Amino acid sequence: MSTPLENFVEESARLTKPSKIVWCDGSEAENARLAANMLNDGTFIELNQKTYKNSYLHRSNPNDVARTENLTFICTHKKEDAGPTNNWMAPSEAKEKVRPLFAGAMKGRTMYVVPYVMGPATSPYSKVGVEITDSAYVAASMRIMSRMGKAALDRLGDSDNFVPGLHSLGDLNPERRFILHFPEEKLIWSVGSGYGGNALLGKKCLALRIASWMARDQSWMAEHMLILGLEDSSGKVTYMAAAFPSACGKTNLAMMVSALENQGYRVWTVGDDIAWMHVASDGTLRAINPEAGFFGVAPGTNAKTNPNVMTAVNKNTIFTNVAITESREPWWEGIDAAPSDGMINWKGEPWTPGSGPAAQPNSRYTVPALQSPSLSSHWEDPEGVPISALIFGGRRARLAPLVYESNSWQHGVFVGATMASETTAAATGEVGVSRRDPMAMLPFCGYNMADYFGHWLAMGPKLKNPPKIFHVNWFRQDANGKFMWPGYGENVRVLKWMLDRIEGRAAATETPIGNVPTPASLTLDGLSISRDTLDDLLRVDSGDWIAEDEAVGKFFEKFGDRLPAAICQEQKALATRLTRTSVVTK
Ligand code: O2Y
Ligand code: MN
Q1: CA distance 78 to 89
Q2: Which member of 243, 341, 385, 421 lies 3.0 to 4.6 Å from 440 by CB, making a disulfide possible if both were Cys?
Q3: For residues 71-86, average pLDDT
Q4: pLDDT (0 to 100) of residue 194
Q5: Whole-prediction pTM value?
Q6: What pLDDT is attached to residue 427?
C-alpha cells in the first residue's frame, strides 16, 4: 500500500507529467549534482571559487523578482475566515482556476520531491512539509533554508503529518501566477513564479500563513519575528523576539555586532525572520526558529550594517539577482567595494554608471545560518529559547519615539495591532506613505486578522510571566530629514534599556502611549548625541498621536464586529490619555 507521501507524489506527477522524478535526500553529493546541472543549463553562474567557494549566482526572470501579494490568496470556505486584509478565493473555485495551469506543466522537466522540516530536526514543535517543484534552484535553496531530505523523511515515516506544497514555474507569466493557501486542509499551491517567498514554500507559505492557522487552533504563535539573545556582562543571556515590517532591518538587528561589547553586551542570533512560540510547562513563552538559513536582502548590506553576514556569505551561498564583477564576485549597491569596470548587472547586461541599479533592489543571498559568527549555541534547542521581551517596530519619520514600553499584555497587543511603517523608495517607488501592518503580519496571516488579535489576547493569560512588550523606531528624523539615531550596532543600547526594564533597573517616564526612557536611563557613553536630539528622539507629541489614533480607528473599522472588544477599549483608553497632558516620572 502506498504512503500518503507517495500518493501525493503520484497524484502530482499524474497532473504535471514530469519526464523524471528525483527524491531529494539533502546530501552533499546531491547538492553537487544539482549545482553541476544548474551550471550546465545556465540556472547557476559560477562565482569566484577562491573567494566565494561553492557559491553561485542565479538570475530570476526580470518579471519575477519579489513576493506578489496581489496574486497571493487564502482559500477558506467562508470569506470572513480569511478576513478583509487577505485576497480570498473559495477552495473549489481556486482549484478549478489553477489546476489547468499545473496540467502538463512539468512536461520535459524534472520533478523534485523536497521533504523538509521547519524547525530543529528533533524538536516537538517542528513541522514537516513536502514541496514538489520543477525548479532545481528552489530545491537547492530549500536545502539551505530548512532541514531538507533524509531528516524530514525519517521524521515523517509513513504518516500523513506533513504540509504538501505543489510548485511549478509554469510559464512565469504574471497573468498565470498564483500563490494559493488552503489552511483548512493545510495545502499550498504555487505556480508561475520561481522567486523567494512565492516559491520556497517552507518560508512565508508554510511557516507563517499555514502555521498561523495551526497555531491559532493549537494555542501557539507563528510570528514574523527575529529571535535574538542579549548577553550581559555577567554572561547571562536574555532572549527577545521582534517584529518589523519587511525592509526595516530585521536581519541586521538579529545579527548585530554590539556597540557595547566593551561593556560585555553581545547579541546572539537565533533567527532573523520567523518565530514559532509556545507556552512551556513552566509557563514561559519559548521560541524556535523554524528556518535553517537566511534569505536576506543584499543591497545596503556591508561591513557596517551587517559584518556577520558579510563573513557568512563567502561560501556555500546562493546569490539571486545581484551584479557580478569582472573577477566574478557578487556586487550590490551599498556593498563595501566601489563599483568596478566591467561589471554585469542583475539582468546579465554590461553595467555602466547611470544605467540604473546594478543589483535588483530585492536581490538576495541565501546562506546557511551555521555560517554566521553570531549564531547562538542555543539556536537548535528542541524546546526553544525563553522569550523575555517582544518588540514591535516600524519606520516612522515623525511619530514614534525611539522606544516605549507597553503597560500590560493587552496594551502590548494593541501596540502590535496598530503597527505601521512608512514606505521607502526601494519598496514601492512611493516614499513616506504609511502602511498599517499589524505585528508585521499583514501579508502573512493565514486568517482573519481580527481573530488573530483575539488569539494574541488569549495567549497572555496562559503565560505565568508574560514577556514585556516594547515598540521601537530607529528611523525618527529631524526637521532636515536626517535620522536622529545612529542605528545598527548602537541599537544594542535600546535592547539594554529593555533588559534593564525587565530586571527592574531602569527608569521611565509615563506617557499616554506607554513608558519612555528617562534620558539618564539609556547607556549612551561613547556615543555623541546632543541632549536636544535625545529629547526629540524620546518626545511624544499628543497632537500627532491623536491623529494617529484616528487613523487606527479607521483601519479597525474594516474588521467590523469581529474586532475584539479589548482592542476597542485600548483604542478609547489611548484617546482619553492623550487628552490629558500630565507627565509623571516613575
Ligand atoms: O520578495 C521575496 O520573495 C522575499 S521577501 C522576504 C524574504 C526574507 C525575509 N522576509 C521577507 C519579507 O518580505 O518579509
Ligand atoms: Mn520577512
Answers
A1: 9
A2: 243
A3: 98
A4: 98
A5: 0.97
A6: 44
Closest ligand relative to 442 C-alpha: 1
CA–centroid distance, residue 249 to ligand 2 (Å): 10
User: b or e along 276-308 (b: 16 or more beta carbons within 10 Å of the residue's beta carbon)?
Assistant: bbbbeeeebbbbbbbbbbbbbbbbbbbeebbbb
pLDDT (tens digit, 9 = 90+) per residue, 299-308? 999 999 999 9
pLDDT digits (tens, 9 = 90+) for 403-449: 999 999 999 999 999 999 997 754 445 667 889 999 999 999 999 99
| Residue 564 neighbours by CB under 8 Å, 6+ apart | 450, 453, 454, 457
pLDDT at position 366 is 98
What does the pLDDT read at residue 425?
55
Q: Tell me if residue 248 is catalytic.
A: yes
Q: Which domains, ranges and CATH numbers included, belong to the chain?
A: 4-44+66-218 (3.40.449.10), 223-292+377-580 (3.90.228.20)
398 CA → ligand 1 middle, Å: 26
Inform me whether the pLDDT recorded for 56 exceeds 90: yes
Provide the percentage of residues in the chain whose pLDDT is more than 90: 96
What is the distance between the alpha carbons of residues 371 and 189, in angstroms, rounded to a whole number?
A: 31
Quick one: which of 212, 214, 211, 220 has its CA closest to 280?
220
Nearest CA among 384, 409, 348, 449 for reference residue 44: 348
C-alpha cell at 27: 546530501
Residue to mutate (ligand 1; options 60, 67, 205, 252; most atoms within 8 A of CB): 67
What distance in Å separates the CA atoms of residue 195 and residue 214, rounded to the nearest whole number?
Answer: 25
What is the rounded CA–CA span in Å between residue 225 and residue 562? 25
Q: Is the pLDDT of residue 98 over 70?
A: yes
Instruction: Indicate which residue of 205, 248, 445, 568 is catalytic.
Output: 248
Ligand 1: residue whose CA is nearest its atom 1: 66
Q: How far apart are CA 131 and CA 135, in angstroms?
A: 11
What residues are in contact with ligand 1 under a 6 Å CB criterion? 66-67, 195-198, 246, 273, 295, 362
